[in-house]
Specification:
280 residues; alpha/beta; seven-stranded mixed beta sheet; three-stranded antiparallel beta sheet; 12 strands; 20% strand; globular; binds S-adenosylmethionine
Length: 280
């Protein structure tokens, strides 16, 4: 490891570089754990995001950090690394056509009297499930509905459970939903808003790794699996979708991101609209 000299004072240790061999170790680890493929272009991202963990543990190389991660001595550290290496970009009412499809086609044809069940299966910091919950609360009134929202990252799940966001995040929330389901922060909470407690309580947030056998969650009318398969290779996409299909009730819908498709991934679901699939 090299040394650099600060303009004034003590010599400082230069940040270590990430060698190709070390990058390959993290690539393999993330693929095994989460199914996520880290393209070579992500090397700088891995270097930047994990650099602070090396510092935290006083380690001199990424190889040493990899050994710590895989030693089994620091199980909590593995979750921290996963949290740092996942990409969690999301926003309220992202890709609105899916919300329109739900409102105009799925909800009006739902099974009368049955609890409507929806799963946001890579929910990130909660914007997707809360957008869905606002729509369900408005459209279904007193009719029963349930929602599970899950992600592999515990850090984003904490943010999701809190339902607390910067006010700028509210830009895509329709005005009527803002008034009905969001509370504007005052005093020290100025510049933020909180999703109303009743709505927060209706969502069951839990950690689910889609790259492992799934827990028993029951059958769903709709599963949102949006903007997560972009990180998976074809074989992982196939396995993840095969795992999810039994969790869809017959006639249930699977939504994937607008830039994603199930072409070559499964023949067990029928395309009904762009990025919307239905179980026969
Ligand atoms: C880009 S966000 C998409 C959020 C939201 N669905 C949307 O479309 O706005 C992708 C999310 O997938 C999660 N993720 C990645 N791999 C996963 C896995 N194997 N199991 C569960 N979640 C995963 C990430 O932690 C991240 O929060």
């Amino acid at each position: 490891m090299g040394e650099t000299h600060a303009a004034h004072g003590e010599p400082q240790l230069a940040a270590p570089g990430l060698s190709d061999a070390e990058f390959a170790q993290f690539q393999g680890l993330l693929r095994r754990l989460a199914g996520i493929h880290l393209a070579p272009a992500k090397k700088a991202l891995v270097c930047g995001r994990l650099g602070k963990r090396l510092k935290h543990h006083g380690l001199a190389s990424y190889g040493a950090y990899f050994r710590l991660l895989t030693s089994g001595r620091e199980t909590h550290e593995m979750q921290i690394a996963l949290d740092l290496l996942t990409t969690n970009e999301t926003y309220f009412f992202r890709e609105p056509k899916h919300f329109d499809f739900l409102r105009d086609h799925i909800l009006p044809a739902r099974r009368p009297g049955a609890t409507f069940r929806l799963w946001s299966a890579a929910c990130s910091s909660g914007e997707e499930p809360y957008s869905l919950a606002m729509l369900l609360a408005e459209r279904l009134g007193g009719a029963p509905w349930e929602m599970v929202a899950s992600d592999i990252s515990t850090r984003v799940l904490e943010r999701a459970r809190s339902g607390h966001y910067a006010l700028e995040r509210a830009d895509h929330i329709p005005e009527a939903y803002l008034r009905a389901y969001c509370r504007k922060g005052v005093g020290p909470q100025d510049g933020t808003f909180l999703v109303e407690r009743g709505l927060r309580a209706r969502i069951d947030f839990r950690r689910v790794n889609l790259n492992e056998p799934l827990p028993q969650l029951g059958a769903f009318d709709v599963i949102f699996l949006r903007n997560v398969m972009i990180y998976f290779e074809l074989e992982t996409k196939r396995q993840v979708v095969q795992r999810l299909i039994p969790a869809l009730r017959p006639g249930g819908y699977l939504m994937v991101g607008h830039s994603e498709s199930l072409n070559g991934v499964t023949d067990d679901l029928r395309p009904v609209s762009p990025s919307v699939y239905r179980k026969p």
